[in-house]
Write a structure and sequence with these properties.
single chain, 14% strand, five-stranded parallel sheet, three-stranded mixed sheet, 16 strands, alpha/beta
């Protein structure tokens, strides 16, 4: 049987289906195997050219990203939202800036030399601002950023989420763009929850949600091709998978690491004399404060806590957070752009109501948060409890009013003071704090213009 190829117009003797893979004898349409090969090679070349152009466009965009994300600019942006934690802001600002420069270097130098990743491990008490800082950093960055709860991960083969889910979350944060995914940032929250149960000692029992997860994360953090299914189901031979190279993904892990200060203190005390004239008497040693101890954390302390040495070696930068005192919590209530008090003031202003907190009330909220031992995350809940009845009653009337929250409202459960204002009064929320616009800085540049916000 003979058939003319509709593309190259050659007369093809069809001995089997592979001589003319596409053929319709009724219409006379057909494509020979040589044309099929040429079409396939053309499509491959076209996709490769598109991929190279995409990589080049991304490399060209890095120059602008490096200029806009210098460490001092990143820190000043974070200062708008996070109170204190200056050391942590500096560490993360430098880590992100170096991440951009590392990507730029990789594109410009193809000689095989590489700058190693500066993955970060963050330690700090609950409610000190770890997750909040990373969330605001994510809003600033022009590269994909994804947060994954490490406590939900399990070793492959056990019930729970595989470690690949962290990369899959980044893949979706990058709008399914593999090139962007391979240069993003992954934050593993609650990392202390996967510490080895037996601390530095080996365990003979199965530990699928702890040491097993750390072992599974090793290659991913160091840099390896991770394969995962698009919809998150378990991998099996028939499920289509997506491959992502993690060599250029920056990993940041964080957790409260409850009790690590005791490990640090014990190590520091062991260096003191324990016998003779210089010996420390039990009870004589004044217990050091958490903030003083946490800054002395070492890889040895992390290993005693239950983090395997291989993981510690892949997280070279240790970033520590301090506890928040009453003054810091009080500032969190009013100063940041998204401060809880300001949020409620904006909400009530929409009902033509002015909201005010006296200084004693703000101090009482801060002290109550410290008593709950949950840090800044409990501030909004405390205010919500106080404001619930007021927010329920206020919409019943359109009259302009002033609501004042006093110390008794916080400590004794008293109702806030409500005062009627003259008819015709219009309440407009004023973005002022101490005579200065919220988020305004005494600098020689315009941060809004620098970030395009």
């Amino acid at each position: 049987m003979q058939q003319v190829c509709s593309f190259c117009k050659k007369l093809i003797t069809v001995n089997d289906q592979y001589d003319m893979p596409i053929m319709d004898p009724q219409t006379g349409f057909g494509i020979c195997k040589d044309c099929v090969k040429n079409i396939y090679h053309f499509i491959e070349a076209h996709e490769e050219a598109n991929e190279q152009k995409k990589q080049q466009d991304f490399a060209d965009s890095l120059d602008d990203k490096i200029v806009r994300n210098k460490p001092h600019l990143i820190k000043k942006y974070l200062d708008r939202y996070i109170i204190n934690q200056d050391h942590a802001k500096k560490v993360l600002s430098v880590a992100v800036y170096n991440h951009y420069k590392r990507m730029k270097y990789g594109y410009e130098h193809k000689d095989g030399t590489e700058i190693e990743k500066s993955n970060v491990i963050m330690l700090g008490p609950s409610g000190c601002g770890k997750t909040a800082l990373l969330q605001h950093l994510a809003q600033l960055l022009d590269i994909p950023f994804a947060v994954t709860d490490a406590s939900s991960l399990t070793e492959a083969g056990f019930v729970g989420a595989d470690v690949e889910v962290a990369v899959r979350n980044l893949y979706y944060a990058a709008d399914k763009d593999i090139e962007k995914t391979e240069h993003g940032i992954i934050y593993l929250d609650e990392f202390d929850k996967i510490a080895r149960k037996s601390g530095e000692n080996n365990s003979i029992t199965a530990d699928p949600g702890h040491e097993g997860v750390q072992q599974a994360l090793l290659k991913m953090i160091e840099g390896n091709v991770v394969e995962f299914t698009a919809r998150g189901q378990r991998k099996h031979p028939e499920a289509p998978t997506i491959k992502v190279d993690t060599r250029n993904i920056l990993f940041i892990v964080g957790g409260a690491f409850v009790g690590i200060e005791k490990i640090i203190e014990k190590r520091l005390q062991s260096s003191d004399a324990s016998i003779g004239f210089g010996a420390k008497v039990e009870g004589e040693h004044d217990k050091k404060q958490y903030d003083e101890l946490i800054h002395h954390v070492s890889p040895e302390d992390l290993m005693k806590y239950g983090i395997i040495p291989e993981i510690i070696g892949r997280l070279p930068i240790i970033c520590t957070f301090e506890t928040l005192d009453v003054e810091a919590l009080r500032r969190i209530l009013t100063e940041p752009v998204n401060a809880p008090v300001r949020q409620y003031q904006k909400l009530l202003a929409m009902d033509n109501v002015e909201l005010a907190f006296d200084n004693a009330a703000l101090d009482a909220v801060a002290k109550k948060a410290i008593e709950r031992k949950t840090g800044a995350r409990s501030l909004r809940g405390i205010i919500e409890d106080v404001m619930l009845d007021v927010m329920f009653e206020i919409p019943k009337s359109d009259e302009p009013r002033r609501v004042t929250v006093t110390k008794k409202c916080i400590t004794e459960g008293a109702r806030p003071d409500v005062e009627l204002l003259p008819q015709g009064t219009v309440i407009e929320y004023d973005e002022k704090a101490n005579g200065k616009k919220v988020g305004e800085f005494d600098t020689d540049f315009d941060i809004d213009e620098a970030y395009g916000v």
